[in-house]
Amino acid sequence: MRVVIQRVKNAQVAIENKTVGSIDQGLVVLLGIEMADTLEDVIWTVKKITQLRIFSDAEDVMNRSLLDVAGELLLISQFTLMAATKKGNRPSYIRAAKHDHAIPMYEAFIAETEKVMGKPIATGVFGADMQVSLCNDGPVTLQLDSKNKE
């Protein structure tokens, strides 16, 4: 499971010019799922995302988590995060999970995130052509890979 995390002042996702999800202060999480991903990957990734200390405290030091600031989260499925680009110029998506595995993992990710945060999260629509707009705060952008826990 690979994620790109962006701290934002606000963000929204639209499909065919209709907003389907939006947040104020919080995180936009782009989620890539591979065939080897399990519920263990979901739990580790959600815990890490919600506990990362990337929000400023009173002294303007990044010392507070999404949970600490009661921030919001916008989740976007993005199979292109699983791209292999080592050979040639055309990315290979062979590692990206097929729908029959990816959709249950995506739904588990939503459920686990809502459980940890104690409130609903905003999402795009799995597999849809989406337009995401955001105001990156900082900017702060991080990436995580549940198979390469650095």
Query: Under the CATH scheme, which class?
Result: Alpha Beta
Low-confidence stretches: none
Tell me the overall shape. globular
Q: How much of the residues is beta strand, in percent?
A: 35-45%
Named at the architecture level, the CATH assignment is 3-Layer(bba) Sandwich
This entry's quaternary arrangement is single chain
How many individual β-strands?
A: 8
Q: What is the CATH H-level superfamily?
A: D-tyrosyl-tRNA(Tyr) deacylase
Structural class: alpha/beta
Radius of gyration: 15 Å
Total domains: 1
SSE order = EEEHEEEHEE
Describe the main β-sheet briefly: 6 strands, mixed
Q: Can you give the helix content as a percent range?
A: 10-25%
- Average pLDDT figure: 96
CATH topology: D-tyrosyl-trna(Tyr) Deacylase, Chain: A
Number of helices: 2
Report how far apart the termini are. Answer: 13 Å
